[in-house]
Amino acid sequence: MSTGTGLLLATVALGAGTFAFRFAGPVLRARVTLSRRLERLMALCVVVLLAALVATSTLTEGHGFAGFARPAGVAVGGLCAWRRAPFLVVVLAAAATAAALRLLGAS
Q1: Which of 2, 48, 61, 80 is the S-S candidate for 66 at Cβ 3.0 to 4.6 Å?
Q2: Distances (CA, A) of 92 to 1, 57, 77, 106
Q3: Smallest Cα–Cα separation from 77: which of 90, 96, 65?
Q4: pLDDT tens by residue, 12-41
């Protein structure tokens, strides 16, 4: 099997699997009932996974520490978001913080 054919087959298989998962959600929602406790737990799991993604993206670059400028920028952006600042202000404050620290020599 050539590389192009294998890539095409893998793409079709992943597309079919993705469609099947997305189609199964609405179809099975009426048949499967979850307890309130499990629904709360699943909602909490979403928050934990998102926090882990943010922490990993913030603190690491490649296989090492990303430096202090990026985490400081994310912290300032998080603080602005917590204070309910507009999205543009959150992004600009985070970017300005990271840029200023990098300009001052922090990596």
Answers
A1: 61
A2: 50, 18, 8, 19
A3: 90
A4: 999 999 999 999 888 888 888 888 999 899
